[in-house]
Write a structure and sequence with these properties.
With about 140 residues, the chain is of the alpha+beta class. Helix content is about 20%, strand content about 30%.
């Protein structure tokens, strides 16, 4: 049986545009868990070496694009794309940057609206210059 993804809404939901779905029901397929990515190189030394992150953009739009490009590579590793993402957590160091993130998010996700949670954090673990981290859950055909 192939995967089936249903974007569901509450019975009394108003007719408003939202960048996410409040509920997604999946039957069939396989779950793929995607680790958090930032604008930094995914493969880097541990403990961290700050010079590895010097090429990162310093603005939210640039970092969002770089982080989503990293997420894209993870999706491609399992023959998936952004249309297969059903849930994502977004961690921002400044919630004022959410509009810039959503602009880039729409470019990558198009009509797909996964469930999302967006949280402001003080700092991300990779490098203090990181502004965003995204992790996700995707469903692929078995």
């Amino acid at each position: 049986m192939g995967k089936k993804v249903e974007h569901l809404h509450w019975p009394d939901a108003p007719k408003l545009w939202m960048p996410y779905a409040p509920v997604i029901k999946v039957t069939g397929g396989s779950l793929v868990f995607l680790a958090g990515v930032t604008a930094a190189p995914v493969y880097h030394y541990h403990p961290h070496r700050p010079e590895e992150f010097d090429a990162m953009p310093l603005d939210m739009e640039g970092q969002a694009r770089a982080a989503l490009e990293n997420l894209k590579k993870s999706l491609e590793a399992v023959d998936a794309d952004f249309g297969d993402v059903v849930s994502a957590n977004r961690f921002l160091t400044d919630m004022e940057d959410q509009d810039s993130l959503n602009k880039v998010w729409a470019e990558y996700f198009g009509d797909n609206k996964p469930t999302t949670t967006t949280v402001q954090v003080i700092q991300l673990a990779t490098d203090p210059r990181c502004l965003i981290e995204v992790n996700a859950l995707a469903v692929v055909d078995s």
